[in-house]
Amino acid sequence: MNNLKYKIIAYLGKKPDFHYEVSMENDGTGAKIAFWSDSLEKSKPTDDELNALSSQATALENNAKIDAKRKTEYLSWQEQFEMIYKDQKNGTTTYKDHCDKVRSDNPKD
Q1: Pick from 5, 17, 88, 107: CA 20 to 30 A from residue 29's CA?
Q2: Which helix (H) or strand (E) segment is 84 a member of?
Q3: Rounded CA gap, 57 and 79, in Å?
Q4: pTM of the model
């Protein structure tokens, strides 16, 4: 069902509210769209339209995993502010170096 979620995001070009605008279900044969709100700018996509977005959906899913991994590797906001303060006070680049390392260790597609 996760890949269907990212296909929907790729189709809409944004993340919908998966509680009120779009809901999905698994009917035993695979994930399907159970509800599609009329308030969305686009009409409910066909299976063919969604399947055409498979590579985009995979890239979105991979980037979401990388974002989650980066989030665990960045320090707390308190520690980040402390690094920024010390960098400004001492003329160093500790904060930038830390962020660059997290990003280079976890590159996006």
Answers
A1: 17
A2: helix 77-90
A3: 34
A4: 0.75
Instruction: Copy the structure tokens of residue 18.
Output: 């998966």
For residue 22, the cross-strand partners are: 36
Is residue 103 within 8 A of residue 70, CB to CB? The reply is yes
How far out from the chain centre does Cα 35 lie?
A: 22
State residue 22 phi and psi, 5-degree precision.
-140, 135
What letter would DSSP give residue 39?
A: T
* d(C-alpha 10, C-alpha 6), whole Å: 6
Q: How far apart are CA 52 and CA 67, in angstroms?
A: 25
Rounded Cα distance between 53 and 39, Å, is 22
CA atoms in the 13 A half-sphere facing the CB of 81: 3
pLDDT in tens, 66-93: 999 999 999 999 999 999 999 999 999 9
Identity at 58, one-letter amino acid code: T
Q: pLDDT, tens digit, for every residue of 22-40?
A: 999 998 888 899 999 999 9
